[in-house]
Amino acid sequence: MGNGKLIILAGGISSRMKKPTDRNLEIDNKLVEDADLKTKSMIGVGKDYRPFLDYLLFNAREAGYGDIVLVIGANDNSIKDYYGYNNSDNNFYGLKISYAVQPVPEGRTKPLGTADALLWGLKSKPEWNSNYFTVCNSDNLYSVKALSMMLKSTYLAALIDYDRSALEFEQNRIERFAVTKKSKNNFLLDIIEKPSSEIVESVKDKNDFVGVSMNIFSLKYNVVLPFLEKVPLHPVRKEKELPEAIKMMANEYENSVYCYSLAEHVPDLTSKSDIEQVKKYIEINFKDFSFEKNK
Q: pTM here?
């Protein structure tokens, strides 16, 4: 088993996934039911309705991770029902899976956002203090290569800087993704949400590369922790967001967050209209998938 440490953020309420769609979707009723009742990562998009999260965990194991924390919501049992009920060290084909519960604060209808989710994840693992770890979303299928790059990073912090032109989404969706602004040495200066065409032009490099953040980061426990604690609420969404905490850290520690360029697609399971595309991706790319290998 690998010794890499990975926190997967799976505690959101999946509000966009649960919205009705006005498109005619070619998905069966069981997947629609999964989408309406479970967290996104547990939708059975794989063979024999294997959940999406299985494929992310498989890639994580192949990349060298062994110690996994799933940050889950307080009212969603679908993950524990599948991966084990122990609070820590559930054995899943050679992975040690633990849980951290992200609560919904009093007076709110949903959790406090991704920075808060990671904070609860770190609080559940005080023994990780001073260690490096990777954090990522539960609704993106990051490749073995991307996960391995984060595990092997030698910088204080790092992120995968995806080539926008390699993403296989509709153009109007790609245009809404957050772009990265970097120094000449490829260190992060800013992560800009919903960028205008002028901003996109301004962040292009000499090869017309535009980098996009898909929320996968390599971080050091004791370095990022203070920024997770003090990051302010987003003025509109009223959530504490992980990219904002990363930006604060990059601004305080010069040349601290390195951007690793990578040109590949990242399957994304945000809404019901993504289900069929993700299902096809898994059918093509995981033909010989078996978690039983290399236990």
A: 0.94
